[in-house]
């Protein structure tokens, strides 16, 4: 189990959706978020599209 799996488990306890901007440094967290069924994940391509 990775640290990102523990982070996702914690997020499952306090929220039901996560907003994020994907990138190389966050790939493990995105992978763990993709494996959970309890969280709705909304991922944007970059900061400018997230602001819209």
Structure, described:
It is a single chain. This protein is of the alpha+beta class and 52 residues long. The protein has one domain. It contains 3 helices and 2 strands. The chain has helices spanning 3-14, 27-35, 47-51, and strands spanning 17-21, 40-44. A two-stranded parallel ribbon has the order 1-2. Strand 1 (17-21), helix 2 (27-35) and strand 2 form a beta-alpha-beta unit. It is globular and about 30 Å long. The model has no long low-confidence stretch (mean pLDDT 91).
Indicate the radius of gyration in whole angstroms.
11 Å
Number of strands: 2
How many DSSP helices?
3
Biggest beta-sheet profile: 2 strands, parallel
Number of domains: 1
What fraction of the residues are assigned to beta strands by DSSP? 15-25%
Average pLDDT confidence is 91
Distance between the termini: 35 Å
């Amino acid at each position: 189990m990775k640290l990102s799996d523990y982070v996702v488990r914690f997020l499952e306890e306090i929220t039901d959706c996560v907003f994020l901007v994907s990138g190389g440094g966050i790939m493990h967290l995105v992978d763990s978020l993709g494996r959970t069924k309890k969280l709705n994940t909304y991922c944007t391509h970059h900061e400018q599209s997230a602001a819209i």
